Amino acid sequence: MKSELKMNGAESLVRTLVHNKVDVCFSNPGTSEMHFVGALDKVTGIRCVLGLFEGVITGAADGYFRMSGKPASTLLHLGPGLANGLASIHNAKKANSGMVNIIGQHTLQHLELESPLTSDIEAIAKPMSHWVKTSKKSEELSKDGAEAIENAKKAPGQISSLILPADTAWGEGGDIVKAKDSTYRTKVDKETIQNIAKFLSNGKHSTLLLGGGALTVEATLLAGKISRKTGCGIITEAANARLSRGAGRLDMLRIPGAGVVDRALAMLDKAGQLVLVGSKPPVAFFGYPDKPSLLYREDTPIMSLADVDEDILSALTDLAVELGAINESPKFLAEYKRPEVPNGNITKEKLALAIGNKLPENAIVVDESVTTGRDFFPATSGAPPHDWLNNRGGAIGYGMPVAIGAAVACPDRKVVLLEGDGSGMYTVQSLWTMARENLDITILIFANRTYEILRGELTNVGVQNPGPRAVDMLTLDRPYLDWVHIAKGMGVEAIKVNDCKKLLDALDIGIKKNGPFLIEIIF
Amino acid sequence: MKSELKMNGAESLVRTLVHNKVDVCFSNPGTSEMHFVGALDKVTGIRCVLGLFEGVITGAADGYFRMSGKPASTLLHLGPGLANGLASIHNAKKANSGMVNIIGQHTLQHLELESPLTSDIEAIAKPMSHWVKTSKKSEELSKDGAEAIENAKKAPGQISSLILPADTAWGEGGDIVKAKDSTYRTKVDKETIQNIAKFLSNGKHSTLLLGGGALTVEATLLAGKISRKTGCGIITEAANARLSRGAGRLDMLRIPGAGVVDRALAMLDKAGQLVLVGSKPPVAFFGYPDKPSLLYREDTPIMSLADVDEDILSALTDLAVELGAINESPKFLAEYKRPEVPNGNITKEKLALAIGNKLPENAIVVDESVTTGRDFFPATSGAPPHDWLNNRGGAIGYGMPVAIGAAVACPDRKVVLLEGDGSGMYTVQSLWTMARENLDITILIFANRTYEILRGELTNVGVQNPGPRAVDMLTLDRPYLDWVHIAKGMGVEAIKVNDCKKLLDALDIGIKKNGPFLIEIIF
Exposure winner among A43, A83, B93, B356, fewest CB in 10 A? Predict the structure, then answer.
């Protein structure tokens, strides 16, 4: 007698994902993933978001983790599909975002035949993943899936890559599996707390360097109390996965990032002793012929309060108690203040003013403004409370996908994407997904029509007076990119502005609209 | 006393590339590649072609090799830049295209600091490369570059990945180095020739399966002579890197490819004994639950005349001599014949007729038409002589970049790109490079507004009556992609057509124009 119809491996995996609250799947499937698609069709409780390029998919999972604190799954088509998603996975890994990548693979028997799409998927996944496994038995797929989830959730967040051969997907599945709880964060011991308290009280000037979990509202307020008590400064790493800021929150500067080593050195020269809180000793983005790679002097006293995977909030609380600072009012609190309204032609400085004027409450700012946005912080620190997300991996094209993920995670919040024209092109297919899902994103494209950062970098590495061939390789104005056309081609409403009045009006439209709106800013 | 100013490593590498006739560089540089850009600026004799995404760059190098027979170089920014280019490198590797990838890396000292863009570039490169090396001494960079070229030129063509730390680029360079000649192809021995001759004369029906170097005009004509003498059939692999065809050349069918296993089985069922000439025993694109992975019966007698890296032309010549076929007139020669002119609404069949009618002499057809173009061969076999390029790696997004490379290699020939709307989006940034370089490419976008191949595949893998969620994941019509807007946004003239008359008129415009022209075909 035939047994009752059981679910196949793919369905056991989808049900395991849903059971463990991994309930969003950013996907770009192919033939080898069709059983998984069939299972997504059958199982309710999982939201599928389609992308037209895999870098969009994996970047969206990054943004989703940053704003929801939990991993999404991605669905990728064999080795090349994973390869297309790798740069965004690199950024996610550096941002400590967890995700569960599900990568289709040929049947194990078919794999030996070297058909066109055959490649060594494990080898492709490994450099960008914390955990990689090929699931070889359909009955164990749900168990492997739970293991992928467990690893993705490990503090502070990890990259899991589960490789799914087609016959593992279509064979008979096992039971739904609950993933082990892996979110535990180690508490910092009392001795470390006491040592840091002494360090901060030794009469020398100190600065807290905040990163990772030290950038939440609660954690930054504790840092502000510690500063009030000890007089220490507070700064953040050059790029933050998610920084809580705005009126009523702490006003901190980031360490200047790529292309401006001298400014970073100058900031850290004044910082004195460093206390790392969820951060690493600061290093330059690139090495240069005549500049140091370390941004601090080698004799700088440095202590670490808590690493990024430890219980940072408890450590800051314990430190504040140890210092007798817990009842202090936090220092560096930003007051609500909109900057002056800019007018006339658009400059970088006026852009900052416009954004500071219009940023709505509870906005999520996804910042890939590269050179244009280096100094956006002062003009926006008094805007209503918001989160500010930067690229920690340096692989350009991060902005649009992360904005998608943030918007999916927080449908009730406005996402404001600050995007360079050069960087925006890497994952331009994102616009279609924004339109398809009607994601609430206002996209600002800074059309300086050049890889401007590279013009500076050519000088920084010692190439003086570059000739026309070098300049041509850094220039995007032949032909102009017309972002209004590009956006319309993918179903996103768009407008071009070239003065402050039009910019401010366009921002009003975008922020009022419930859905994607692109503003191409010519300056 | 200071010695005279010597060239730096980057310049020694650029001069070594030019000296060895690797004189095109498809590039997307970043900070770590700025010395290389500086050297490109200084050294004449190398053409730089900028792309806005690395999959465009590496795919262009693939197309360039297919049409010029020599490797181009690519310039990629660190691990993520290479990662973005990997899918196109996968396709190039499967097409046996040689290329010299130059991948920037941090200075060796900076690498230890785990700055944002740090990754294990060698590990990322290895799965898709034949040769990988990190050049650690500026004085030896030109030697390493020559070794990269030597390996890229090895028959039939290989992927070299040279990793270039910034300090190797800016340190003092060595002398220009001539790469060893590595293009030698092994001759097939006399015994094999005689055995194949006997095999073809054993009274059973045989078919030559041509691939690689067996697809040139000369080689196919020799195959036609052999067929005339022995009565054997001639077919080609499912996807060919470059197939010479059209009026006066051999008329052959390809083995049906992805998604239509049954059709492929039916063709090979009639093929009888197989003689492989630059090809592999045919296997299905994917494995399916109830279908074989091998496209031939296991008891099929198979012999191999020459492997893809051997001297195929000599082997075919020797075989023709051995069989006494060298003076025969080739069988299967196509006569010049344009198909009937289609009219009314557009269908797949009428598309084939339209292309067969308008294809200009000496055209290069880059075919990523996926489902739409499965049956384009019969209607185009009598068109003037042309080359037909297919995707051998199966990673979608191959068409536009390969068209760029073909157009750069053959500026005096018209490139006709047959592109699906789904696949075209993966490397859509290509349009900008086409406009920038005014490449002579007529782009046909088949806007069926679906991943149509996957609809069939859902059934093929046994998912019957897919529900709305599955169908939604295979559909591109929410929102519509408007290719005319997208093209204009990147500087490419474009037109939308929805009947045969407009299509034929648009083809006339595109083919007459000297530069890129996009036709969005709604059907």
Answer: A43
